[in-house]
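Fold these two proteins, one after the other.
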Amino acid sequence: MAGFPIFVLTHSHLRCSSDTWVIEKGFSCFNLTGSPESEATCNFGPVFNRKSSKTFKPYPKHVFNIEYADLEYLYGTVAFETVSAGGLAVCLHCACCANHD
């Protein structure tokens, strides 16, 4: 995103979100009982630092919130960002930054 390579899983399914989301630097990680865990335990890998992006624009009054069948859930910031994949760049793509897992 915006010149910072990070690993993302893409998915699109009738019962799932097709939102683009990344893990934001400084995220909080919790286990299924709600107890805090280390970032390493969540094992997301490289994270997105919005402060390093020149194209990140928050979408005010909108919140990202998703829950999966395995009870994993994420919420955070909704924003517009330049996203590139395979040489194709999409400017002002609506992307989500999860900062609570």
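Now the second one:
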Amino acid sequence: MNHQEGRHHEGRHQKGQHQEGKPLGKTTPKGTTPKGSPTPGRKTARKDNTKRDDLATNPLAQDKISVFKNNISEILNKGFSCVDRGEFFDANSVFMQAIAQLVNFDKNAYMTFAQEILFTVRYAQASHFLYEMQRLKNEKLYRQMALIAKYVGDLTLQPQHQLINMRIAIRINFQVGNFYTAARFINLISLPEKEQYSEILKAAEEKDYKDLCVLKDAPDYIVLCYLTMRVIHGSSYSKCSFCAATFRAQSLSNCIFCKSVLELKARNL
């Protein structure tokens, strides 16, 4: 990832069970139907909660899912290639295509492919953020860029990609004077990588680990709108019930990434 930096049959046991071939209790005259028994020739409703296409037992369903996952992997690899080239807009389009196929696989997609959807959503979000950071850099809006870099660095991706994003978050936040944020990401990095940031950690300690560069219009408890890339104002916001993306209150009914329903949340001011 070169950012230019580097988811019974519960059979009712009826009275009159057979034991050793003999009926228990009252017998039924030949040619008649016991009370409560289905009429001969009439199909009864199947009282079985187990789906016929149960993924755990149906080989055909398993094969279908296996082929589907392979197709998704091919799409994701295209997205990774775009990210490695720094083509974040194209990468985001590819990841969104993969998400659309995952969530539309069937009505149980969010259970069947929960891990795959969330994984892909994180990459869609990362590429979305990084593309916006490119624009902000061109406009020299470094404070807003540093804020978004915090979100990028906190996204759980593949280790090599997450490390690069954390490096970006460290560099940008240190440059604008956000020493606490820079130090926080450094302390999340393992040795020996962490050793190269000793000077930044020393500077952060001298500055009492404070974030000096805070957006003037940002409240103490910052919530970012994932659509506009701007700080959310007001006492409430909308949050995705699946991937936790946040948006301006009641501006949308569904998440732009995973299409899940948004829930209204109160902000701790």
